[in-house]
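call fold(seq) -> C-alpha cells
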Amino acid sequence: MRVVESVEAMWSALAAARPDLVDEQTAYSVWHFCDNESDADALVELVLAGRKRATAGLLWSYEAEGESLPRVGDLSVVTDWDGRARCVIRTTSVEVVPFHLVTPEFAATEGEGDGSLEYWRKAHRVAFERELAEAGITLGPEAPVVCECFEVVLGDGPATS
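ret:
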C-alpha cells in the first residue's frame, strides 16, 4: 500500500508544481529500470544525479508485452526496485535503430558506466541477451533498439537511508 501511495503522492506533487503538464486526463506509466534490484536502484540514482537522461530497450520486448512505444511528451513515474516513486520523467525523443547503429552520443546520454559506446554495447548486450534467452532468440547487430531520451520534471533527490 505504501508503494502505491508514494506513486500517487509524487503524481500529486507534479500536478501541483507543473499544472502546465498535468490535468485530470493526463495519463502516465509507472516502471523501474532493468530486471534486477541492484541495477534498477543504481540507474534511478543516476537519473536523480543528472547523469542518466536516456534509456534503451528492445523493440521485441515492447511487442512481446503488448506495450506501445514511448512517445514524445509521455510522462512516467520511475520507481526503485521496491516500487517507491523516485521521479517523474517526460520523454523528449524516441528513435528505433539497429543495435550496431546506436550512437556514441546516445550512449553518453544514457549515462551508464564510463559513458562510452563500448561500455554501452557490452552492458546492453549482456542485458538484452539475458532477456532474449528466455524466448530462445539471439541478439544480432540488426536487432531494433528503442532509444528514448527524457528529462526529469520532478525528482526526490538521491535516496537517503
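The two ends are 20 Å apart (CA to CA).
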